[in-house]
Design a protein that fits this description.
It is a single chain. The protein has 192 residues and is of the alpha/beta class. It folds into two domains: 113 residues, 3-Layer(aba) Sandwich (Rossmann fold), CATH 3.40.50; 52 residues, Arc Repressor Mutant, subunit A (Orthogonal Bundle). Helices cover 53% and strands 14% of the residues. It is built from eight helices and five strands, in the order E-H-E-H-E-H-E-H-E-H-H-H-H. The protein has a five-stranded parallel sheet, sandwiched between helices. Helix 3 links the parallel strand 3 and strand 4. The longest helix is centred in the middle third of the chain and has 21 residues. The chain is elongated. The two termini are 39 Å apart.
Length: 192
């Protein structure tokens, strides 16, 4: 791991040592801090001592399986996003995991986990930031006025953060470019 700051703490729960260590190497190469657990019992004791931004857990493990651990954690209001993994998952497993509260389900072997991890952690950070930022809006003004204030801040933030790249901002906002141009004009935001 380099001297760069850690960008997220991840717990990988997998009894397949080679798979777990490969994931750890991949993630630590780009400055995630990874802790490994070989089974549910070890994972439970680790989460009592440490906080994580993401848990990646195998479905099939010796002792308690990943699905029952996921269910146990969700019943106890576990707030960390959990991604389930399996080399031989049935469609029913995927559906069950998502219904129980998993944020994603990946098929092993994992070939390119970085985009998935970045997406999940990016969404988590965006949600935290939006919860903090939205608390500054005056809730006594009409909804349309509050929405316009929020949208102005939102688009100005993304335009600044992305070097005023309209295509990138449209992608981030989930809008067509023409719709974004119209919104920016309506909000009085300079595109340049």
């Amino acid at each position: 791991m380099s001297d760069s700051p850690v960008i997220g703490n991840i717990l990988v729960i997998d009894d397949e040592v080679i798979n777990a260590e490969t994931m750890m190497d991949t993630l630590e190469d780009v400055n995630y801090k990874v802790v490994l657990a070989a089974d549910a019992q070890e994972a439970k004791s680790i989460v009592k001592e440490h906080t994580f931004d993401l848990v990646m857990m195998d479905v099939w493990m010796p002792g308690q399986d990943g699905m029952s651990l996921l269910e146990e954690w969700m019943e106890n209001d576990f707030s960390v996003p959990v991604v389930m993994m399996s080399g031989h998952a049935e469609h029913n497993d995927v559906v069950k995991a998502i219904k129980l509260g998993a944020v994603d389900f990946l098929k092993k072997p994992l070939h390119d986990i970085l985009p998935i991890v970045r997406k999940i952690l990016g969404e988590q950070q965006a949600n935290k930031a939006s919860e903090e930022a939205i608390s500054g809006i005056d809730f006594d003004i009409p909804l349309k006025a509050a929405r316009n204030i929020f949208e102005r801040q939102y688009f100005n933030h993304h335009l600044e953060s992305n070097n005023r790249n309209i295509a990138k901002v449209a992608e981030l906002a989930g809008l067509e470019r023409t719709t974004l141009y119209r919104k920016l004009k309506d909000l009085g935001i300079d595109k340049k």
